[in-house]
Input
Amino acid sequence: MTTETDTRAGTHLYALVQHFYARQMQALDEGRFEEYAATFTEDGTFQHTPGTEPARTRAGIVAELHAFHERFRDDPVQRRHYFNQIVLDPQDDGSYRSTVYALIVRIRQGERPEIWPSCVVHDVLVVDGDEVLMRSRTVSYDQLPAQ
Amino acid sequence: MTTETDTRAGTHLYALVQHFYARQMQALDEGRFEEYAATFTEDGTFQHTPGTEPARTRAGIVAELHAFHERFRDDPVQRRHYFNQIVLDPQDDGSYRSTVYALIVRIRQGERPEIWPSCVVHDVLVVDGDEVLMRSRTVSYDQLPAQ
Amino acid sequence: MTTETDTRAGTHLYALVQHFYARQMQALDEGRFEEYAATFTEDGTFQHTPGTEPARTRAGIVAELHAFHERFRDDPVQRRHYFNQIVLDPQDDGSYRSTVYALIVRIRQGERPEIWPSCVVHDVLVVDGDEVLMRSRTVSYDQLPAQ
Output
């Protein structure tokens, strides 16, 4: 039976996760990679490209992000990650599966902003009181990523 | 007079409706039409194209969605419905009018994702405890839909 | 120390601000400029273009919006402002800094909807009970605005 307390807790968590994602993705888009990595658990994993090995641990995630952005050194680009339609499903171990649409807007100087790419983000969130952390993030693409 | 209890109930409902929409539209975009139809009341109506007769009842909505998607059999396309700027207005009969921006991203293999189309969704929601159902959905377009 | 009451208040405020923005931006996009201006404090300021003087007071904001839209008299365009990734930071004076992604979809008849432009909105919000008002709004662009 779902009690009123449960559902209040549910909507509280929903807004908490929205705010968590907002801070997290503003940090990523502004290049604050340590802050982004700190939103993962110490042993968290992050796979941003299907078919590759995920980055592991906060230090590993920071290193991966620096390597990724190094590729765009001669082609400066601003990205904005728009998250939408967050679905939270509680799991047996107390964590939450979070399934989220992500529209990435890519902006290059002198070009029109464009959507590149359209993704679905699959997270596992652990919630301790009001602290949210990510145990894992896996990104799937609606089409294969390419330049 | 608006009491604190009222406004807490208001923000609780707001997050509840966001989560409801997230599940609903992920179901639609993944082709789970029965699950989408089940978000309507038994006698719910769904008009996705202005000037056409709305689909009526859950069974009618499922049939309509299958017919719509049949048209794209030879032209596979992935859609992602982004909902934003949800405005909820209570109505005299206890239901809520919900006015929502919808940006649909359309993805075809080998093409760039594009916005097609930009819509405003007009829903009537009935809320019983923490169950949300749609009595009706009418979609208006910022320009006429075309291929 | 953050108490449970604090964090419940935090997620309550988060949903309150989302709903506030939804009403505000639907008003702007539908050309209800007085309603948009009324979301500012009496002495509020609004700078929509970097490097220009901000509009001041509600009357000044209405006048500025009429002047801006006059420019599009011969080129009718529908805009939809999508807000996302809202980050709220409390300030010492009791107000909140709000940093928000804004994707503007521009729709012209006979053309595809396009993203123009991609922005970050920097607001200062004052909250009195459940009334939210804006003391200031400053918009930054990911690239320079142009036609």
In short: Chain A has one domain: 4-141.
